[in-house]
Amino acid sequence: MDSIQSFENVRASGRFFPQGLTVQREVVIYLIVGLLALVLRVAQLDVVPLTTQESRQALAAWRVVYPEAAGTAIVPESPIGFALHYLSFSVLGPSEFSARILTVIASVLLVLSPSLFSSLFGKTRTLIMVLLLAFSPTMLATGRMDSPVVWTYLAVVAGLWGIWQFHLHGRTRFALLATICAGAVVFLTEPTGVFVLATLALAGLFLIWMRRNVFDVDTPSQETVSAGRLSNWPWGKTVPIAILVVFLASTLFMFYPAGVSSVGELLGASLRGLTTSQPYLPPFFAVLTTIFYEPLLVILGLVAAFVVITRDDIGWEDRFLLGWFIFSLGLAFLYAGTRPEHALWLVIPLVGLASRLVVNLVVGGERFFAPPWSRWLIALVVGALAAMISVHAQAIGRSLLTTPAVEIQQVNINPQNLIGIVIAILLVLIGYFLASSEWGEGTAVRGGILGVLAFAMITGIGAGWQIAVNNSESAIEFWNRNPTSNRTIQLRQTLLELADRETSGFPELAITAFAPDDGVVAWLLRDFPNTTFVTDATAARGQGVVLLPSTFTDPDLGSAYVGQTVAITNGWDFRNVTLLNFPAWWLQRRTLTGHLPNDAVTLWLRQDIYNGVSALDVQ
Fold first, then answer.
1. Is residue 52 part of a domain?
2. Reduced to 3 DSSP states, what percent helix, strand and coil does the chain have, rounded to the nearest 5?
3. Is-contact 446 370, C-beta < 8 A?
4. Residues 126 and 158 both lie in one domain
């Protein structure tokens, strides 16, 4: 078994928290982390417009909640997302906030979910996993999206806990929980759920293979009993109930029987994703996203994976995490239809693996003469020097941004930035030798890595916030390949003000839209039941309020109109980044060229409507 110890078993000099830490204080710590995660996910949640994918899934539920809504019925790809949208829209009405809030709550629970395994990993390691998830930019960005991937992994963690508990106690209720979660992952969450479940199954087989063939571990009697329990899984009792749960969830407890078709759509989308990539996304996007936003986590995870492979005294849980990561990585390379949130495939097992190294940094042995606070002092100093290096590196990146690609000799870098980096590196080296001579090499190395990790975690919060809020409409942000423009909020506000003027506040304004009825524009028009979606611009002739693609620069609408063009989605080709431009783009998202609209519409108002004459009076 793993040698990692819980708080109660760690000697006083190596404790991360005081010796008197109680269960109540642990709960307080997790509540603080959970509250921080919730605040970071809820803040400004309603000011970021829905993406094209989010809009389609939200419209699928809204048109069932509000049958008068314009547009045809949509079969959703996520039955659980459909059910949650139906619930939130029925209670809170349709909005960006109500579309996302339940997934936000699920993401907070996912951040705290390692606490279920506290007795397995130890309290210190569990807390480290929670912190790594809470400060992960990938987790923060995904948690603020209406992404069913969050529900996939919440079900995965709950299912693994059920299997573990059944492994220990052999009670049917734990097997039932795990079976229901497996059914939800495959049939209710999102198209890649069946492949996620396959990676877990392969990870289990990998664990068995490693125990029997690589390390030739003898199985103790207690493990033999537990293995017998797993082989006696109560399929006859659990599978029928799991099928019933899937049926009831997909049909909204029979209030919407047609919802069962969403299960078929999910499985169909799952197969299509094997060969069909998402629009605007490059191959292996989940892998690239993980490396781009989580470089330190990747390094720590790979080092931990090497340790697990090369040592024979590693617990079964770490071997399972290794298998989970290996097969998730294979899935990320083989599955063509990955989106940025699928980086969780790799982030979740990497967090589990990396926590093994971090816990050794936190509670690892020291020389008897090294005080308990020594590594934390070193971490503080190294973190500050890392921030100093980052500031000067960003300045150098901005200098390289304006350098012609073929004339590197013309680079105009401020010498102060180079000097600042050199001084910081020298201080790190000098500090290492001083700390090594005073407290030992182990303490110096552990403190240094902890400082870098702390700096990466703090900047990770900033990176996640930039993805989800500040750069939510910027296609220059690597995460956002086809983001919705913030100007869509202005378009919706204009239509609401127009409806207030024309129909005294009632959404009875007649709108003709030449746009898909399952995209961002359709979501903006969700409150206008008198909207007509057309596929031919001539069908809009003579209408009072018309939305046409911006490519129709001078449409013949049969009368005088006033138009305003609004970007719907933005695009940018990241292949424009050269080697010299890369540091500025990676560190600060600075580029020589800005994003441009991928898609735009023009709002055309008939002249009399624009002048303020009521459409009802004209009719």
1. no
2. 65, 5, 30
3. no
4. yes
**Residue with structure tokens 């190395």?**
445
Q: Are residues 162 and 192 in the same domain?
A: yes
pTM attached to this predicted model: 0.89
* pLDDT tens-place string over residues 31-76: 999 999 999 999 999 999 999 999 999 999 999 999 999 999 999 9
Distance in angstroms (rounded) separating the CA atoms of residues 211 and 484: 49
Average pLDDT over residues 143-171: 93
- Count Cα neighbours of 575 within 13 Å in the Cβ-side half-sphere: 3
- Percentage, residues of the chain above pLDDT 90: 57
In DSSP notation, 268-326 reads HHHHHTTT-PPTT--TTHHHHHHHHH-HHHHHHHHHHHHHHHH-SS--HHHHHHHHHHH
129 with 233, same domain?
Answer: yes
8 A C-beta contact, residue 290 and residue 193: no
What pLDDT is attached to residue 17? 45
If asked whether residues 347 and 465 sit together in one domain, one would say no
Share of the chain above pLDDT 70, in %: 89
Q: Say what the pLDDT of residue 432 is.
A: 87
Residue 98 CA to residue 95 CA, distance in Å, equals: 5
Q: What's the mean pLDDT in 386-410?
A: 77
Number of domains in the chain: 3
Q: Within a domain: residue 169?
A: yes
Four-point Cα dihedral 320, 321, 327, 330, nearest 10: -160
At residue 619, does pLDDT exceed 60? no
CA distance 328 to 331: 5
Closest CA to 439 of 383, 377, 382, 385: 377
pLDDT digits (tens, 9 = 90+) for 90-102: 999 999 999 999 9
Chain centroid to CA 54: 14
Query: Phi-psi region for residue 505, left (φ > 0), alpha (ψ -120 to 50) or beta?
Result: left
Q: How far is CA 228 from CA 166, 170, 270, in A?
A: 11, 9, 34
Of 345, 178, 183, which is closest to residue 273 (Cα–Cα)? 345
Domain extent, residue 605, equals: 487-618
d(CA 142, CA 139) in angstroms, rounded, equals 5
Looking up tokens 């923060």 gives 140
Claim to verify: residue 304 and residue 325 sit in the same structural domain: yes
Radius of gyration over every alpha carbon of the chain, rounded to an integer in angstroms: 28
User: Do 381 and 345 share a domain, yes or no?
Assistant: no
Half-sphere exposure in the Cβ direction for 221 (13 Å, CA): 0
Task: Give Dmax (Cα) for the chain.
Answer: 91
CA–CA distance, 316 with 308 (Å, rounded to integer): 10
User: Is 501 a domain residue?
Assistant: yes
The model's confidence at residue 499, banded by pLDDT at 50, 70 and 90, is confident
Interacting residues of 90 by C-beta distance below 8 A, sequence separation 6+: 65
Pull the structure tokens for residue 75.
Answer: 């079969």
Contact 444, 381 (CB under 8 A): no
Distance CA 388, CA 392 (A): 7
For residues 79 and 179, state if they share a domain.
yes
Q: What is the mean pLDDT of residues 501-516?
A: 82
Residue with tokens 């999102």: 190
Ordered alpha helix ranges (H), 572-611: 582-588, 607-610
**Residue 476 contacts residue 495 (beta carbons within 8 Å):** no
Residue at a domain's end among 363, 385, 401: 363
Lowest mean pLDDT among 255-269, 273-287, 342-356, 404-418: 404-418
Q: What is the pLDDT of residue 593?
A: 83
